């Protein structure tokens, strides 16, 4: 009798086993209520997290724009190296690729004919920022080399 007065449990359960199970259920209810109250308190402490999450959208856009610029510059430099290499190779070997142009240059020496090779390379770039523009991005670079005498 003293136990149910102290615990706040009803008098219905008889015997030690029923009393223990009722007591455990009561403890579980109290623990659940305490956990729920603690969860609600933590949720109230998380004020401003939505506003902080909204910062991610412009930050991601800024990152993609910066990465697009880096990708464009590196791609241009790589294509410029390939174009220059192709022009130099063509001027040494005398074999020209499709798109190469041979230009005759005015020479002060009447016996020496100066010619140059211009090699052009184009490459499409991926669009990392989808709504920034609808046009295709292309790098267009040229390589230049003087032709060796092919006598």
What would your notes on this structure say?
The chain is of the alpha+beta class. The protein folds into 2 domains: 2-47; 51-146, no CATH class. The chain is 53% helix and 18% strand. The protein has helices spanning 2-7, 16-45, 49-54, 56-93, and strands at 101-105, 114-125, 137-146. It has a 3-stranded antiparallel beta sheet with strand order 1-2-3. The termini are far apart. The model has no long low-confidence stretch (mean pLDDT 80).
Q: What is the strand and helix layout of this fold?
A:
Layout: H1 2-7, H2 16-45, H3 49-54, H4 56-93, E1 101-105, E2 114-125, E3 137-146
Antiparallel strand pairs: 1-2, 2-3
Low-confidence stretches: none
The helix fraction, in percent, is 40-55%
How many structural domains does the protein architecture include?
2
With strands numbered from the N-terminus, the spatial order across the biggest sheet is 1-2-3
Annotation field: number of helices: 4
Radius of gyration: 39 Å
Average of the residue pLDDT scores:
80
Strand content: 15-25%
Shape: rod-shaped
Main sheet record: 3 strands, antiparallel
Oligomer: single chain
Strand segment tally:
3
């Amino acid at each position: 009798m003293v136990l149910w007065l102290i615990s706040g449990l009803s008098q219905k359960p008889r015997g030690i086993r029923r009393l223990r199970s009722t007591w455990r259920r009561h403890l579980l209810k109290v623990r659940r209520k305490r956990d729920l109250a603690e969860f609600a308190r933590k949720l109230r402490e998380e004020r401003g997290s939505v506003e902080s999450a909204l910062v991610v959208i412009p930050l991601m856009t800024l990152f993609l724009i910066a990465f697009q610029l880096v990708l464009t510059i590196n791609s241009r430099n790589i294509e410029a190296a390939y174009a220059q290499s192709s022009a130099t190779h063509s001027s040494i070997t005398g074999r020209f690729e499709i798109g190469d142009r041979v230009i005759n240059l005015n020479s002060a020496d009447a016996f020496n004919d100066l010619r140059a090779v211009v090699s052009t390379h184009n490459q499409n770039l991926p669009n990392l920022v989808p709504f920034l523009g609808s046009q295709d991005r292309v790098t267009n670079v040229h390589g230049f080399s003087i032709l060796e005498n092919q006598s």
